């Protein structure tokens, strides 16, 4: 039974790559934004650059669940600020370029505005964010080809608050061991609600609180930057992915079936020690951080000037 209670299956949809550096953060960047996008660009730019960006990030998801008893509208909102801080320099040696940056390339989350709403078994509140502290260096060969690499310390955090059907799952498992423990939630009198009403009744819910699951790791990037002429730059970079295995505590708060509406459910929960019980355990949430291949072609139509730049990227 303990294994049943503490074992969960987590699905991660995807991680959005935030546009680090805003309008100045592109694969063909040659300033401090190149630390993240393509370290090879550091040796192409001359001088010292500082980059500071603060990007408000707003998101809303509206849902409408079609269910006779537990359906309705719900809304998840996310409000945050995503920073990027970078510095780069050639230290007066033109073929060389180095840089440091702090970025949040992956972040998502949300909080129900109708908590606990009809989507409480999926998510009531949660979020994930990944912070990169990156160092990069590059070297340009004969003013033609620049080669660069970066190393990033990655700190990732995952939080969530949601409800589960752990109590009803426990009841089903007990029923498999002995018919005396069975409660099929079936209507006993005319007009009684169907079985799926009780399964989602808040009195049967178990609230899980994942409070700051964390994972630290390293990743790397590499790239090349070709400048056949002063007016043209061709950039190709690779950002390595990896698996983020978040570990930390999970708190489990059990509700209790109503003693009048479901006396058998109440007795069963009370006998098994889960009526209004509080438990804690260890949790692991694992998902993959995607790898990226970035390309950019930069054109400077005004010869000898950087005032006009046209870039195609992907």
How would you describe this structure to a colleague?
By secondary structure, the protein is mainly beta. The protein has a single domain (2-313), classed as Outer membrane protein transport protein (OMPP1/FadL/TodX) (Porin, Beta Barrel), CATH 2.40.160.60. The chain is 11% helix and 51% strand. The chain is built from five helices and eleven strands, in the order H-H-E-E-E-E-E-H-H-E-E-E-H-E-E-E. It has helices spanning 2-6, 34-37, 166-177, 195-199, 263-271, and strands spanning 48-65, 72-89, 96-112, 125-141, 145-164, 206-229, 232-239, 242-254, 278-289, 292-299, 310-313. Strands 1, 2, 3, 4, 5, 6, 7, 8, 9, 10 and 11 form an eleven-stranded antiparallel sheet that branches. Strand 2 (72-89) and strand 3 (96-112) form a beta hairpin. The chain is elongated, with a radius of gyration of 27 Å. The two termini are 50 Å apart.
Report helical residue fraction: 10-25%
CATH topology: Porin
Largest sheet: 11 strands, antiparallel
Please state roughly what percent of the residues sit in beta strands, choosing from under 5%, 5-15%, 15-25%, 25-35%, 35-45% or over 45%: over 45%
Classification by helices and strands: mainly beta
String of helices and strands: HHEEEEEHHEEEHEEE
Number of helices: 5
Uncertain residue segments: 1-14
């Amino acid at each position: 039974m303990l294994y049943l209670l503490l074992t969960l299956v987590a699905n991660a949809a995807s991680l959005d790559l935030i546009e680090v550096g805003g309008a100045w953060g592109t694969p063909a960047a040659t300033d401090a934004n190149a630390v993240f996008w393509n370290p090879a660009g550091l040796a192409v730019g001359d001088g010292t650059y500082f980059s500071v960006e603060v990007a408000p990030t707003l998101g809303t998801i509206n849902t409408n669940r079609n269910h006779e008893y537990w359906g309705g509208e719900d809304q998840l909102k996310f409000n945050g600020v995503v920073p990027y801080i970078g510095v780069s320099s050639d230290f007066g040696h033109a073929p060389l370029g180095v840089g440091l940056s702090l970025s949040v390339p992956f972040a998502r989350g949300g909080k129900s505005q109708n908590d606990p709403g009809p989507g409480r078994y999926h998510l009531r509140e949660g979020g994930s964010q990944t912070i990169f502290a990156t160092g990069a260096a590059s070297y340009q060969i004969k003013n033609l080809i620049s080669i660069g690499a970066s190393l990033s310390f990655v700190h990732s955090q995952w939080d969530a608050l949601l409800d589960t059907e752990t109590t009803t799952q426990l009841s089903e498992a007990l029923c498999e061991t002995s018919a005396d423990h069975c409660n099929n939630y079936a209507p006993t009198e005319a007009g009684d609600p169907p079985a799926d009403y009780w399964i989602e009744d808040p009195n049967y819910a178990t609230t899980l609180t994942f409070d700051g699951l964390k994972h630290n790791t390293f990743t790397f990037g590499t790239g090349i930057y070709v400048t056949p002429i002063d007016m043209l730059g061709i950039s190709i970079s690779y950002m390595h992915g990896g698996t983020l295995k978040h570990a930390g505590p999970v708190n489990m708060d059990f509700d209790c079936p109503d003693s009048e509406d479901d006396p058998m459910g109440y007795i069963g929960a009370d006998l098994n020690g889960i009526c209004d019980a509080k438990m804690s355990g260890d949790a692991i949430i694992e998902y993959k951080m995607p790898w990226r291949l970035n390309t950019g072609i930069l054109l400077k139509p005004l010869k000898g000037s950087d005032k006009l730049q046209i870039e195609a990227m992907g």
